[in-house]
Design a protein that fits this description.
The complex is a heterodimer of chains A (292) and B (767). Chain A has 292 residues and is α+β, with helices and mostly antiparallel strands. Helices cover 37% and strands 25% of the residues of chain A. The longest helix of chain A has 29 residues. In chain B, the strands form seven sheets. A seven-stranded mixed β-sheet of chain B has the order 3-5-1-12-9-10-11, with helices on both faces. In chain B, β27, α18 and β28 form a beta-alpha-beta unit. The chains are: A alpha+beta (292), B alpha+beta (767).
């Protein structure tokens, strides 16, 4: 379990990073928190010829609110996100999902950008970002482009990132007034990869009617459950409503089988979690209305 | 008797916690190079050719060893669990012309560092000719199954039967016969520290020194001598600090031959540290058994008979434990229950998986799961509470010592105890009746809450002998040289307590030396919860001889009859005249050759003793657990867990309860999480901690651990019974029973994966 040889690069600025990535192309991988890439390299499943270390690129490590939008630098540690007061008050879903990522020690090293760009099925942050309708800023040597979180992941560990490109920043809009969110997950151990995970965001008007809903499931790629979202729109929250929505959420979805759970299990678990997450989110939305 | 019975803090801990521990990975020798093992990537294949040319050309590579460098290679012998037939499938340290599991050693690369060694592994070209692989025991026994070893037709190198009473007649008298098949999944000890060895040959002194052997240091010392031809006097084994064993670490493995061979072959000190990926393929696995069992009862719940067939999936080769796990299963399947008519047919079956050995409570964990599940199934059909069914069948105190009847390989006479009394106590501690009511109330609300019981008898303290030498050193300190090993269990502390009490000295004046073949000539190692039982008893014997010697020295010096001398507080004084006394340092000076010979005494204060017995003590106990299961996701929450065990006498209650807690953590892992999954071609799927799921601190609930010492063992001078395995042994049983109770289903296999529980619920709904 020792990595194959590689050349190590230690840039200090974003422009140095993009220049390196531009020059090295497909032979390079960026090193963020290393919580996934380093084990893959130790197993020699990943054998990059060049490793570009982002850990000393200070301009990628920030967390701020601009124009009501949360801006997260790719190198922001997951633990920083989890403990941020701004995040707790404005984007509680992010805090909730981050608590499911591995263990504290892992979150101390793991980064927001690393988790999103790795695009591992069952990862929590991608599901949350899709639910919150985040936008990802991708930076190459020639400039930047902005991609919706929903369009970022193409499939298992594959994204729209081109060789030479880097996920630089995540922008998360503030949920509308009267919103509540929830994340539910089952995993075989605390902190383990999710067998199933569901994030829900529900917005209620003053009369308690659902005016917006987003529901995203873990899977080979984060999967938005549009049929379920449509089913609850304009309705009042109820057990029966969410049961029906959850049923629609998993109709026709694809899940993988592995030694820990079959695809069928994952579908069933997603259905149960979708119902619970919707109910939970609606309850929180109602509570926020009551307080507001 | 100041120390025995008190929770003395572990003497091992302070240096280890300070980072002063020297583990095998900390050993550095001048000129040391690093070995990596090329392992088979095929489950079953002929090795047609090996070409190491490219590897040898890589800068930094010292050399490559293949079977061609080892003519006349012998197989690694069994040290226990021996059956003649199993010798036919023993493993050579390196594959000669055929590989039989993924992980089978094919070549050894030695290089300047481990990085280069692993680069070179990729450059060794092996041409395999694949053979059909078989992974399941039942499939391996089929007529058309691929044969693993030419000498073993049917892939069953050994089988045996246990036959007690008259099973056929007893079944004819039964009102209810419960028949079921059960499976326990392959999992393993997986200690935190992987295996590792450093070997160095000193040509001038003609001594091969090896750091890293543990658990069975002296046995392995003899085996290496037999395999290598070096006399034991030219081999020196040193046990470093050890990060866990649990049965797997410290047996004689292929690497225990290959690493010292490489050191001699290349004339360089060689270090090999197993990485985790190797560890999950190469180190002994365990627990994979299939059962078909019939249990016969009367209407009132009295068990009349049991009949079992057990398939023991032993992987590709016989390893050092031979058939021990299934011997233990077949012996202990009756456990704490009075079953007078018993038949069992056990089959050892070769398959294309990693070979197996023991794991903490070998064979018993599996057997307890099977028996305790059968009891609950019978209780349900008879309309009896599971506790009541057990009450009616537990061996009673007046039946002790209880003889289960002849077993071909296992001592079967339970020494002492009150099993029903302990069950009642456990039910009381658990608040069983109230818990049952809570379960009923929860079920009325649609919540799946259940309670499970797992009663057990453990075996411990295996003989046939153990060695101890006790010396009084020049400063008056007492040193115990013991043939047992430390695998992290705190044995040096426990033995120090025993010696301090026996010698009437402070524990600070006692030192324990173990695991060094130059200092301890004999030993049977650390296994089967035997160290305190056997090592402690041997230490007592040696201490008593030393006391006689001290009295003789004092008697000669003070010119007082030894009968008028008393040993107290580290000195010998004249009875009634305490001012006339000699401390141990003074006595040690008197024992120097000059003064001793002048008085006609043998110089030195050093006495050896062997404690020898074939009678094993049997600790016994109860696991009890309450769970709630999420009916939609199959996730299990443990609400309360109680382990009770009587171990005869507690030398150190804190260590005892630590053993129970650690055992339970592993038991929960085995019941819920851990599983070596193989695909149909024999490719292992769980080869890292991403997929081999060990429980972490977050997954293990706070348990309640109650150890008692109500029934000392009559089989040793201390009255102790082994305490290392009670915490794990009935965890699968109790959890499976609790989950079955919660869901109204019948669990028949482990682990309790969420998907399996959904399947059981679906099947229950359909029927």
């Amino acid at each position: 379990m020792k990595p194959a040889g590689f050349e190590y690069h230690d840039p200090r600025t974003l422009s140095e990073v993009t220049a390196l990535l531009g020059r090295l192309g497909e032979d390079a991988r960026v090193l963020a928190g290393g919580q996934s890439l380093v084990p893959l390299m130790n197993f020699r499943l990943a054998r990059p010829a060049h490793l570009v270390d982002l850990n000393r690129v200070a301009e990628l490590d920030f967390l701020s609110v601009e124009g009501g939008e949360l801006r997260i630098g790719a190198m922001t540690r997951q633990r920083v996100l989890e403990r941020s007061e701004v995040v707790v008050s404005g984007w509680p879903l992010l805090r909730e999902v981050t608590g499911f990522i591995g263990h504290v020690q892992i979150r101390n090293r793991g980064t927001v950008g690393g988790s999103l760009a790795h695009a591992f099925p069952s990862a929590e942050l991608p599901v949350a970002m899709v639910t919150l309708d985040a936008a990802f800023v991708l930076q190459g040597e020639g400039g930047e482009r902005v991609v919706a979180a929903e369009d970022f992941v193409l499939g298992t560990m594959t994204t729209v990132l081109e060789p030479g490109e880097l996920l630089r920043e995540v922008r998360v809009p503030a949920p509308a007034a009267g919103s509540g969110a929830s994340f539910r997950e089952v995993s075989r151990r605390y902190g383990d990869f999710a067998l199933a995970g569901v994030a829900a965001l529900v917005t209620l008007d003053r009369d308690g009617v659902v005016t917006a809903a987003r529901l995203t499931l873990t899977g080979p790629a984060p999967t938005r459950a549009r049929a379920a979202e449509a089913a609850v729109l304009g309705e009042r929250p109820s057990e029966a409503l969410f049961r029906e929505a959850a049923r629609r959420a998993v109709a026709g979805i694809e899940q993988d089988s592995d030694m820990h759970a079959t695809a069928e299990y994952r579908v069933r678990a997603c259905e149960a979690l979708a119902r619970r997450a919707l109910a939970d989110a609606a309850e929180r939305a109602a509570a926020s209305r009551a307080v507001g | 008797m100041a120390y025995i019975g008190s929770s003395v803090k572990r003497r091992e801990d302070v240096p280890l916690l300070r980072g002063a521990g020297k583990y095998v990975g900390d050993i550095r020798r001048p000129g040391m190079v690093h070995a990596a093992i090329l392992r088979s990537t095929r489950a079953h294949a002929r090795v047609a050719a090996i070409d190491a040319t490219a590897a040898l050309a890589l800068p930094g590579v010292v050399g490559v060893i293949t079977a061609a460098d080892l003519p006349g290679l012998k197989t690694i012998p069994m040290r226990t669990g021996i059956m003649e037939g199993l010798k036919r499938s023993q493993q050579t340290p390196i594959a000669t012309d055929r590989v039989r599991y993924v992980g089978d050693p094919v070549a050894v690369v030695v290089a300047q560092d481990r990085y280069i060694a692993e680069d070179a592994l990729e450059l060794v070209e092996v041409v395999y000719e694949d053979l059909p692989a078989v992974t399941g025991a039942r499939a391996a026994m089929a007529a058309d199954a691929p044969r693993l070893h030419e000498e073993v037709p049917g892939n069953v190198p050994a089988d045996f039967e246990v036959d007690v009473g008259d099973v056929d007649r007893a079944f004819a008298e039964c009102d209810l016969i419960v028949e079921e098949t059960f499976e326990t999944q392959r999992h393993a000890a997986v200690p935190l520290e992987t295996r590792g060895l450093v070997a160095e040959y000193d040509e001038v002194r003609d001594v091969l020194t090896m750091w890293g052997p543990t658990k069975m240091t002296h046995t392995n010392w003899r085996i290496l001598s037999e395999l290598s031809g070096l006399p034991q006097s030219s081999i020196h084994f040193i046990e470093p600090a050890v990060g866990g064993g649990f049965g797997a670490r410290g047996e004689f493995y292929p690497e225990d031959f290959l690493v010292p061979f490489a050191a001699m072959h290349f004339r360089r000190p060689v270090c090999w540290i197993e990485d985790r990926s190797e560890n999950l393929k190469a180190t002994n696995q365990s627990r994979e058994q299939s059962y078909r069992v019939r249990l016969g009862l009367r209407k009132d719940g009295t068990i009349l008979a049991m009949d079992a067939a057990i398939l023991f999936n032993m992987g590709g080769y016989t390893r050092t434990h031979g058939g021990l796990p299934v011997m233990a299963s077949s012996a202990m399947l009756r456990g704490p229950m009075r079953i007078k008519n018993y038949h069992c047919h056990a089959y050892c079956v070769l398959t294309n998986k990693t070979p197996v050995g023991t794991y903490r409570s070998p064979g018993r964990y599996e057997a307890n799961f099977v028996r305790e599940r059968l009891l609950d199934m019978a209780a349900r059909r008879l309309g009896l509470d599971p506790a009541e069914l057990r009450r009616r069948n537990l061996i009673r105190p007046e039946e002790m010592p209880y003889d289960h009847g002849k077993h071909p390989f296992h001592y079967m006479v339970y020494d002492s105890g009150d099993l029903p009394g302990q069950l009642e106590a456990a039910l009381g501690h658990m608040g069983y009746d109230e818990l049952r009511q809570r379960c009923t109330a929860a079920k009325a609300e649609g919540r799946a809450m259940g309670v499970g019981i797992g009663c057990f008898v453990e075996t411990s303290g295996i003989g046939p002998w153990e060695y101890a030498r006790v010396e009084v050193g020049n400063n008056g300190g007492v040193v115990l040289y013991s043939g047992v090993n430390s695998v992290g269990q705190g044995i040096a502390t426990a033995l120090s307590q025993i010696v301090a009490d026996e010698m009437c000295v402070s524990i600070d004046d006692v030192r324990v030396v173990h695991g060094d073949t130059a200092k301890v000539p004999f030993g049977n190692g650390s296994n089967a919860s035997r160290c305190t039982v056997m090592g402690g008893s041997a230490a007592v014997g040696a201490c008593r001889k030393v006391k006689d010697k001290l009295l003789a020295l004092a008697s000669a010096e003070l010119e007082i009859d030894a009968g008028d001398l008393v040993l107290e507080d580290g000195r010998i004084s004249v009875r009634g005249a305490p001012e006339r006394s000699l401390d141990f340092a003074a006595l040690a000076r008197l024992a120097l050759p000059g003064p001793a010979l002048a008085k006609g005494l043998t110089p030195g204060i050093a006495e050896e003793d062997f404690f020898a017995t074939d009678k094993r003590p049997f600790p016994y106990g109860v696991h009890m657990v309450a769970v709630e299961v999420d009916r939609e996701t199959g996730m299990i929450e443990i609400l309360d867990y109680l382990v009770m065990e009587d171990i005869g006498r507690k030398v150190n209650p804190m260590i005892v309860e630590g053993q129970m807690a650690g055992g339970l953590a592993q038991g929960i892992g085995g019941a819920l999480l851990e599983e070596f999954v193989y695909d149909e071609d024999g490719q292992p799927q769980a080869t890292s901690f991403m997929d081999y799921l060990m429980p972490t601190a977050m997954d293990v609930p706070p348990g309640r651990f109650i150890s008692t010492e109500d029934f000392p063992s009559p089989n040793n001078p201390l009255g102790v019974k082994g305490a290392g395995e009670g915490g794990i042994t009935a965890a699968g049983a109790a959890l499976a029973n609790a989950v079955s109770d919660a869901l109204g289903v019948e669990v028949t296999r482990l682990p309790l994966k969420p998907g399996y529980l959904l399947e059981l619920m679906d099947a229950a709904e359909q029927s």
